[in-house]
Amino acid sequence: MQVDENTKVYKMGAWSPGPGCHGGCGVEISVKDGKFVKIEGDVDHPYHEGRLCPRALALGQYINHPDRLRWPLKRVGERGSGKWARISWDEALDTCESKLRDIRDKYGAESMVFGQGTGRDSGGPILFLAYAYGSPNWTLFGLSGIACFTPRLAACFQVMGDMTFPDAAQFFPERYDDPDWKCPEVIVSWARNLQGSQCADHYFSGHYVTDMMKRGAKLIVVDPVNGWEASRAELWLRIRPGADGALALGMIKVIIEENLYNKEFVDKWTFGFDKLKAHVASMTLDEIEQITWVPKEKIILAARMYAKAKPASMRFGQPLDSNAEAVATIHGLASLWALTGNIDNPGGNIITRPPKGVTLYPYSTEEVIQLYGQEFVNKMNLKRIGADQYPLVKNFRSWAMSDDVLKQMETGTPYPVKGLWCQTNNFIAGTAQDPKRHWEAVRKLEFNVVVDTFMTPTAQLIADIVLPAAALSEKDSVFTTGVPCNPIYKVATVDEARPDWEINFELAKRLNPQAVPWANVRGLFDQRLAVIGKTFETLIDSGYVMAPKGDATTPYNRHEKGLLRPDGQPGFRTPSGKFEFYSQKFEEYGLNPLPYHEEPIESPFKTPEIYKDYPLIMMTGRRVGVMFHSEHRQIPWLRELNPHPSIDLHPDTAKEYGIKDGDWVLIEGTMGKAKRRAKITPIMHPKIVMAQHGWWIPEATYNGDGNPYKVWDINVNQLIPMGHNSKSGFGGAFTKTMLCRISKVKEGEEVNYGS
Ligand SMILES: Nc1nc2c(c(=O)[nH]1)N[C@H]1C(S)=C(S)[C@@H](COP(=O)(O)OP(=O)(O)OC[C@H]3O[C@@H](n4cnc5c(=O)[nH]c(N)nc54)[C@H](O)[C@@H]3O)O[C@H]1N2
Ligand SMILES: Nc1nc2c(c(=O)[nH]1)N[C@H]1C(S)=C(S)[C@@H](COP(=O)(O)OP(=O)(O)OC[C@H]3O[C@@H](n4cnc5c(=O)[nH]c(N)nc54)[C@H](O)[C@@H]3O)O[C@H]1N2
Ligand SMILES: [Mo]
């Protein structure tokens, strides 16, 4: 659309960087003379219908920020000295090419690790580069147990062959007006804080809750914090962090023992019901009340409300991935959907696959194989770090195990790790647990590259080359992980910043031309879009694409229609063809086939001796809407709304420790400490404190002393260990459950923000 002579408006999807998000919203971007002017929500887009988050609305301040990385840099002093020189893209890519070739020639491609952060669109090009180069070691670098979404995905794929999301009518252009859609009577929001983590995450943000509540849905919230959702809930279960597995079993017990389960669904579509029944019969609600801190009357009420609602949906969040045995916890939650028949039904939990299978960034083994072929994936598994040790890791999605990557960097066995390609990952400030251990390991490697939009603590400390990434409006990409399939395209530029896909495509072509037969990135997109009958250009023209009703990638009741299994038979993609309460895959992998609860590594019950000295439970990283992980600390509008690296304390807790609002607080755990500014709020439980993650102080200048932007003063991940991931490999990051004690920081020892 032409606004005036020089300004044009482009409709596209939004996905990091800028908003810093998991993507999916439709936006309108105005551009004048090749430069970004403004962003607005696209009211015609079915996803968010024009609503935008504050981070998207602040895109202009992100794009034009004076600290944006604008050209490639090379390190000119010692690692971590903070001395950099501008270089050309040719020199940057020549250096990367020759160093990566050296490492491959001397030690084998597997000696190079390709690390990403959360699911941004850069995930696709990172895997693409790793595999073209020949390294199986693609990972979510630093996050113990790959504890973000992958444990949830892995669990659901093993026990039911797919992932589900609450039905928000997201598959229908008419949304809630579609005649097949039903409003859930009850929504369970379990460890999910959509008002803060408002990023779409496949189900339309916090609007989902208000949209449904306006239509009569009642809300059950399972959360230690009395947040936005808990305060609006019909029933709030104030759980102790990390006790979710036990609560799920309690609800299962009530539903089975009170005969509230959906007999038809259970008989026809599930496997192992009797074993589940016997399993929950062996525990009492009193025990579960003690473990969870949730009164048993409320457990019973919640179970009844959820099971009697027709239909009911459940959303579940990342804290579950941090649970000690995350996969087992998630098995428990998913079992609740199956017991009540709320799978792929209107208004329940609907199975979600990428529209018509278009994949640029794979979320499942099936998608990895679709892109790279079974033979290649098998070959990669031979050397993939962690694949030999954890059958679930080997058999799901293709990540190298983050905890074992770190160990292998340190020990060099069974083979050495020599370099890190670090793209969309700020592990020193937020991604990694035990970030100093990561720093020690990575600083000893031969060659490290950081690709980012800003100079971060991570880039300062570990990079040899820093490459400037393009932001939203400056890059071509396709959002394929949810619905609909959105084009994202380049309409503006900022100096020499380049899109992740372009950087990785060019380097991959140099390192292995055979793996990159396309002339350019758009050629690759064209090939991947062929299944929806589009090219990248025609996708831009149509704006977005939704798969038609009746397709295997759209609801409902696909298990009845034979749309889920590769053999075309009715049922689910599992060994039994049913939802497995008793998982045959877990049994095969030597894991417990039934859902169960395990205590966090430190807890009032597991380590009472530690609890005596560290009597508070530290939750971290409860999301705030104005920031995405370690990003946006330098964006004025957003920082104004969340100005301090805070720790949330209940007024009673603050009183007990003599702390006033705004005081600096020392948090100490068994393995480290950090300072935070007190924010006193009644939403917290008196025994639980909450420290935001990802903090660094971009306005503090860096003098090369190894503490860039004061990160070591305030990073709470110094209190959280690596290497205690779940038995399956996935899950167990303990970001919500470490024990700690607090005290007021002595006068003169506060953290100042300036230089
Ligand atoms: N604005 C913004 N949005 C984001 C992100 C961001 O950084 N900023 N990050 C994105 C990413 S990668 C992720 S993984 C998601 C995460 O987003 P969510 O999955 O929503 O996770 P959190 O915000 O950590 O926590 C959700 C809720 O769980 C509660 N909680 C904490 N521990 C426990 C527990 O042990 N049990 C239970 N039942 N509840 C618990 C918290 O109090 C909180 O209210 O958000 C995504 N969206
Ligand atoms: N204590 C604690 N730690 C946590 C969590 C918690 O709840 N508590 N949450 C964990 C979770 S769930 C996750 S997913 C991780 C997230 O960890 P990450 O996803 O690694 O998040 P960041 O630390 O913000 O690092 C991302 C970096 O990438 C840059 N960036 C953003 N978009 C792009 C892009 O498109 N291209 C490029 N090249 N760069 C980009 C940003 O500027 C930033 O420096 O953190 C984990 N760490
Ligand atoms: Mo995450």
Quick overview:
Helices cover 32% and strands 15% of the residues.
How would you sum up this structure, described in words?
The two termini are 46 Å apart. A hairpin with a 2-residue loop joins strand 2 and strand 3. The protein is α/β, with parallel strands linked by helices. The protein has 29 helices and 26 strands. The strands form seven sheets. Strands 5-4-17-16-15-6-7 form a seven-stranded mixed β-sheet. The chain is 32% helix and 15% strand. The longest helix is centred in the first third of the chain and has 19 residues, at 89-107. Helix 5 packs across helix 13 (326-339). The chain binds ligand MGD (2 copies) and molybdenum atom (MO). The site of one ligand MGD has 33 residues, from loops.
